[in-house]
Amino acid sequence: MTYQKQTTLKEIMKKLPADYQFTDTYQPAEEWWDYKGHRLHLDTFRNPEAPAKIIAFHGVGTNGRQISMILGGPQAKNGYSFYR
């Protein structure tokens, strides 16, 4: 399941300032990474010219896309690569 199909997330975004809301042209890429028998879901804002990569982890039961909205997106706008 991808975030594109989650209607609750769209309702959450409406409560955030416009700069934090994802659009059709501004949103992280959803990727999957197979690691040691586990399939991990990633949100990424890749920037090969970035001075640094930011990697954010979250616990079980939280919504990682929220981390991407309030941390990842703004840092991507500041020129950093972001992985969650």
What is this structure, in a nutshell?
The protein has helices spanning 7-14, 64-77; strands spanning 29-35, 38-45, 53-55, 81-83. The protein is an alpha+beta fold and 84 residues long.
Please explain how this structure is put together.
This protein has helices at residues 7-14, 64-77, and strands at residues 29-35, 38-45, 53-55, 81-83. By secondary structure, it is an alpha+beta fold. β3 (53-55), α2 and β4 form a beta-alpha-beta unit. The radius of gyration is 13 Å and the shape is globular.
User: How far is the first residue's CA from the last residue's CA?
Assistant: 16 Å
Strand order of the largest sheet: 1-2-4-3
**Number of H/I helices:** 2
Q: Tell me, what's the shape?
A: globular
Unreliable runs: none
Spell out the helices and strands N to C: HEEEHE
Overall pLDDT: 89
Radius of gyration: 13 Å
The share of residues in extended strands comes to 25-35%
Structural class: alpha+beta
Largest sheet properties: 4 strands, mixed
Share of helical residues: 25-40%
The number of distinct β-strands equals 4
